Amino acid sequence: MTDYARTAQPFGRTVGAEIARQAQQHAHPAVAPRRDEAALATLLRARQRGDAQRQEPWVRRAPEPPRKPPHADVVEQLAARLVPPSLWAMVEPLIPPAKVRRQGGGRGRVSDRALFTAIVFVLSSGCAWRHLPATFGVTVPTAHRRFQEWTDIGLWLRLRRVAAENDSPEAEWLRLLLDAAERRAGGV
């Protein structure tokens, strides 16, 4: 018999397995707190290093404030050019107030100004409703539905009367938009 055969352990009785078995048999209750102390020491060192990636699992981070979409500034500038405050002052009184909905689910109503701006974008660019950029914060069905509602109640005709009474550059812009709205609505 060779030296190797005499010193070889039977299967399942390797040196590592034997050490693990003995450690389980002789486990001391003080082992767990030592592990906790080691984990806390590791966390403390990470905090002292300023390692932001490692954080205590029991500490929750405060939610981050909502971020603007990447092109939000461009959309705000475009909205300010499409519907300047003086134009909005002419339009706002003619828009009917929102119907009061009973309490329940659903989303809140989108502001009339955001919707009017989105509609003006579609009218002035000549794009299809489905190409309305999402960065306006208005969904395509909502913009189209509100355009149809405003067409049905005669908003564009009332705006035409207001534009005829006014001689400002905004009134001229409004007349051009109303021509486009008439074409979109099928000859209001």
Structural summary, described in words:
The chain has a domain at 70-96 and 110-186. The model has no long low-confidence stretch (mean pLDDT 77). The chain is 57% helix and 0% strand. The radius of gyration is 35 Å and the shape is elongated. It is an all-alpha fold and 188 residues long. The chain has helices at 3-7, 15-25, 31-49, 72-82, 85-91, 112-125, 140-152, 155-165, 169-185.
Secondary-structure topology with pairs:
Elements: H1 3-7, H2 15-25, H3 31-49, H4 72-82, H5 85-91, H6 112-125, H7 140-152, H8 155-165, H9 169-185
Q: Quick one: how many beta strands?
A: 0
- Runs in which pLDDT lies below 50 for 5 or more consecutive residues are none
List the helices and strands in order: HHHHHHHHH
Give the overall shape, derived from the CA principal axes: elongated
The percent range for helix content is 55-70%
Biggest β-sheet: count, sense, barrel? none
Gyration radius, in Å: 35 Å
**Total of DSSP H or I helical runs spanning 4+ residues:** 9
For the termini, the CA-CA separation is 107 Å
Structural class by sheet pairing and helices: mainly alpha
What is the average per-residue confidence, as pLDDT, rounded to a whole number?
77
The fraction of residues assigned to DSSP E strands is under 5%
